[in-house]
Amino acid sequence: MNIPILIENFGVTLDWLGTAIQWLIGIGPIVGVGIILFTIILKTVVLPLDAFSKVKMRKNNLKMEKMRPQLEKLQKQYANDKQAYNAKMMELYKKNGYSMLGPCLPMIVTLVIFIFVMSAFSSYSNYTNLHTYEQMAESYNAAILQYSVGAEDEEAVTTDSDWTAFYTGSGDEQVFQYYRMERVYNSDAADCLIETRVTYYYDPPTETEEEGVYTEEELAALTPEERETYLDGLLAENKTSGIISTSYTVKTAAVLAAAESEDEAFAPVAAAAEKLKNNTYQDNEGFTANDYRAREIMQQVGRDASSNIYYDVRDSFLWVNNIWEPDVSYEHPVKMPNVTNSLFTQEMFNELTYNLSAEKAAPNGYFILIILSIGFMFLSQFILSRSQKAQNELQTADGRGKKTQKIMMIVMPVIYGIFAFFYSAAFTIYMITSSVYNVVSTLIINAIIDRRFRKREEQEIQDKYNKRLPQHAASGAVSKASAGTNNRQSVNKQLRQNKLRISEKEKKSADTNREKRNGGK
């Protein structure tokens, strides 16, 4: 019974970005940790741009807070004239060194990087899933072919068929394609359970100037003996066009004997036979029931090897069974990948995953990463809104910026949630790590900027106080020490008054908003 050897190369490749991701992810001991390290490295590389943007935004917010009294006055004065408010606001911006464009460029660069990474993760997920099946196919074939012989084996008996012309079509439309020959490797050794069949082909050129090379027409004009000698010479020199297929024929008696043997070399065959002991077979199409049993035993040897390598190479992380699929319960860790590559067929998938029925039905995850991605993005947006509170409240005459920011606090987490539903758990881990990194970096940057701004504000108050001091102490009643003490007391008093004034204004604003809401009801 002739059974094909599975294709081991599905033609999947990575671009430079996918290769970079593969290398960086490989830094970690497991894939999930590797993705976290990759995200931290990437965020650290772009941190100067990100920090520049956040510093600009925070400084703008502090400057806006400083302009709050003037802007609130303008909001009341030009409540119904947005253009006039914007004109006056721009004058204040220019006077106080407020820049609206400063934070924009770094944010655009960060967005472009996010899109690139999202695309790269999508491609890499498809690549990794297919590459897993490539490894399973290699293991499947190797497990079966260990019971065969090859040309390099001394015990091998090689049998060649004649080179025959292969045509497509029929009648007048029949078209020549190539010459082909089947070579069979066999042995009478007890450990040889299968005959291996390799079909070679040669596609002659239609025209050539190379010496000693026949064209298609010249090759057809040779005698069968001359053509056979010529093509055998090309095969010996590895100058044929390639291999069409490789298959094997089960040696029924040898396989059934190995299934009953206690020899360690035949342990995989015995284990496969034990799994199939309750199966029944019938004679059919010229083959006996034992022929069918022997064939399935050898197939089961390949299936066992395929499932074993799957458990060795699969990429799981915590509760997620396949990190390259979404963390959802309706997806499964083992499934037929969405590929346009015809080399990987449904039949091949079924054979490679024959022992993985439980994995084909199990949930891949439980939505936990999706919930975390939404939660951390909401936290990131909340901290960002607090960092830009003054800007949101004062950039428009009617204060709509604050409403817009509230909408963004809902929209951005929803967008992240949608990405997490449709993209791999690996990309969701990237988004979560990125959000956590943003939260931490924002808090640190805000703390540093706020501290520097307070020092600058203290210095400005100190300078104002110094200007009001008399240039000459005529009376000599105030000593330098008491003057210094009075200076510090005055500065601290001024700061307390500023904080009290801001607190009263915030309270007044909250009362006004509450009255409006109650009035609306």
Give your account of this protein's structure.
- This protein has 521 residues and is an alpha+beta fold.
- The protein has a domain at 7-145 and 318-469.
- 61% of the residues lie in helices and 8% in strands.
- It has helices at residues 16-25, 31-45, 47-66, 68-77, 82-96, 104-145, 216-221, 224-236, 252-260, 267-275, 289-313, 346-352, 357-361, 368-387, 389-394, 400-422, 425-468, 480-520; strands at residues 2-4, 157-160, 164-168, 175-186, 194-202, 242-250.
- Strands 1, 2, 3, 4, 5 and 6 form a six-stranded antiparallel β-sheet that branches.
- A hairpin with a 6-residue loop joins strand 3 and strand 4.
- The model is unreliable at 471-484 (pLDDT under 50).
Rg over CA atoms, rounded to whole Å, is 38 Å
Number-wise, the strands total 6
Overall, the morphology is elongated
Low-confidence stretches: 471-484
Our count of helices gives: 18
What does the largest sheet look like?
A: 6 strands, antiparallel
Which whole number gives the mean pLDDT?
A: 81
Order of helices and strands: EHHHHHHEEEEHHEHHHHHHHHHH
Distance between the termini: 84 Å
Report the sheet-strand fraction: 5-15%
- In percent, how helical is the residue content? 55-70%
Comma- or semicolon-separated keywords:
18 helices; six-stranded antiparallel β-sheet; elongated; alpha+beta; 521 residues
